[in-house]
Design goal:
401 residues; 19 strands; Dna Ligase, domain 1; eight-stranded antiparallel β-sheet; metal ion binding; D-amino Acid Aminotransferase, Chain A, domain 1; alpha+beta
Length: 401
């Protein structure tokens, strides 16, 4: 019986979900100080341990081990992007179930991911680690343009550079910081695949179509249930998860549908961000985060998911999100017409992401620069996308003089 749960926090505050499943559960949360504000239900925790972001993994392990000596822990969970490598190290040290450090390393480090998939014969996209400007020049000479330069580990569409012509190469060379990956640009529609695994069995649950700005920052999504027409993508994603050693939990895999077939961009051992789990839940009734929590508590949830997927007449709609982006650089004064936008047909809500006084930057550097979003629900992807876009357009971002 799991009586004491170690929650590695900072992205999704799942303490209420844990308590709903097990009211008697004792929860210890460990979190990096910059993400402490994300722990919104600290009162449900037995203890909250916050560490400076510079703390080593060894320090995280030592503190977890000390708590374990005082009150033995029975499970480890990390449901967001941050600190999963620390959760893996703690679980390995305490002999608790979690993804192995090797699996998390392959997921976090896109260079290791590319090497693994190439070795397994799954994806041969040319890619290489970049430590110097000469490395980038050599790759461009060997594989040609266009290419993509991005961090080896990162999220939120941060610091991604596309080099399409030789004239753009000098600017890219100046941005090489010693910890990046260069890969051939993949041409095609980008989608993400929301999946759930248990015992090495993978179920493809949702397909998300992405909308990005010129700087690769995501400004919208529309999600729907996976169908039989998605089987080529589903088969490819299952092979990726097998090769990387991911055997349980939710995954969010981003890929490009090229003329040669699907090719991976990156994958994550978590449910998607940008409200995708909430949209999928609203559209299909499947809650990936709740399933992940139940699984981390020792429940076998694949039969539950399979029963939902096979249910006759199961609701299958489409959910969408559209972001309002800064109209110009400056300081935010306010966002007008939020209530009117939220009341538009098909819209399920509008949420502000910036407080008055926040600096806005154009062009956007990453997803943290977005101002607000509106979500919608409809019977088809086109209607859902249109409703969310119209609502976002109704929002008026007012900048300080």
């Amino acid at each position: 019986m799991i009586r004491h749960f170690l929650l590695i926090g900072g992205a999704r505050d799942v303490a209420p979900v844990l308590r709903d499943r097990r009211p008697e559960l004792r929860i210890t949360t460990m979190v990096a100080v910059p993400r402490l504000h994300r722990i919104r239900h600290s009162g449900l925790c037995t203890r909250v341990i916050a560490l400076d972001d510079s703390a080593t993994t060894a320090e995280w392990v030592a503190l977890a081990r000390r708590v374990h000596e005082l009150e033995p822990m029975h499970a480890v969970g990390a449901f967001g992007e941050y600190d999963q490598h620390r959760a893996a190290a703690i679980a390995a040290a305490l002999g608790l179930p979690f993804h192995t450090p090797e699996v998390i390393a392959r997921v976090y480090d896109k260079t290791l991911m590319r090497q693994r998939l190439r070795a397994c014969g799954i994806d041969d996209t040319p890619a290489a680690a970049v430590e110097t400007a000469q490395d980038l020049e050599h790759f461009a000479d060997e594989h040609g343009l266009p290419l993509i330069l991005k961090p080896r580990s990162g999220s939120g569409s941060e610091r991604i550079v596309r080099v399409s012509t030789a004239a753009e190469l000098p600017a890219a060379l100046s941005q090489v910081d010693g910890d990046q990956l260069v890969e051939r640009y993949l041409d095609g529609d980008e989608v993400s695949v929301e999946a759930f695994s248990e015992g090495g069995v993978h179920r493809i649950v949702g397909i998300t179509r992405k909308l990005k700005d010129a700087g690769f920052v995501e400004i919208g999504h529309v999600i729907r249930a996976a169908t039989a027409t998605d089987e080529p993508v589903a088969r490819y994603v299952r092979s990726v998860l097998d090769a990387l050693g991911i055997s349980y939990g939710p995954t969010h895999t981003e890929l490009i549908r090229t003329v040669a077939g699907p090719r991976i961009v990156e994958t994550h051992t978590r449910a998607g961000g940008d409200q995708l789990p909430q949209l999928l839940h609203a559209a299909t009734g499947i809650d990936l985060v709740e399933l992940a929590v139940r699984q981390s508590l020792g429940e076998q949830v694949l039969p539950v998911l399979d029963a939902m997927l096979a249910e006759p007449g199961r609701a299958s709609r489409a959910g969408a999100i559209r972001y309002q982006v800064p109209p110009a650089s400056g300081r935010l004064l306010r966002v007008d017409h939020v209530d009117e936008a939220a009341a538009m047909a098909g819209v399920t809500g509008c949420t502000l992401l910036k407080e008055p006084g926040a600096p806005l930057v154009v062009p956007m550097r990453d997803s943290d620069d977005r101002v607000a979003y509106c979500t919608s629900l409809a019977d088809d992807v086109e209607s859902a996308a249109a409703a969310a876009e119209l609502a976002a357009q109704r929002l008026e971002v007012v900048l300080a003089p």
